[in-house]
From TrEMBL:
Coiled coil feature spans: none
Name used for this protein in its record: TetR/AcrR family transcriptional regulator
Domain of life: Bacteria
Pfam families xrefs: TetR_C_46, TetR_N
Segments forming domain HTH tetR-type: 13-73
DNA-binding region, residues: 36-55
Keywords, ordered alphabetically: DNA-binding, Transcription, Transcription regulation
UniProt key word DNA-binding: yes
Amino acid sequence: MPSPERRTRMTPEERRRQLIAIGVNALASQPLEAITIEFLAAEAGVSRGLVFYYFNSKTGLHHEIVRTARDSLMHATEPKPELAAAERLHDTLERFVTFAHDHRLTFFSLVRGAASGDETVREIVDEVRSAQADRLIAMFGELGVASSSRVHVALRSWVALAEQALIDGAVNAELEPGELVDYLERSARAVVTLVSEPRNAD
């Protein structure tokens, strides 16, 4: 029987936000595919039809959950403009590791979404990658790295490397947080240095 709290009348927007929040929180213990209309209805103490009303389908529900998870990651790793560029880079990577560690399945679901058969989910994940790369490009620009196509490609590629490192190091807890932050920072700097150096003539 639903608790009195669950029976509290909400506005449509409040109810929608509540349902999405339940879905995102569920990622802490199960994969995205396991979060169904029926599961969400039971957790919220509402009818299956009401969940359908807000999301139209399981696919629509998953899109909103992934978008909200994306926004949570982007907010949690937002660079702090008051910090100097070098300190800001370290701080941002530190919070990236913390997010992956504290929200393991949420982060894993986002990364795994890149291989999803759902085009919308892939686009959402690509948005995260592009935004994170753009943040890095801006920080390295402040550190004196000249903007170039090679630097942009290198840092966008590095984001994919960082995701795998975060899965192995933070999600699977194979590295201590400080060790993982150090690896990410060193590897990002090394990639930028490599592509910024003049190429040797053949």
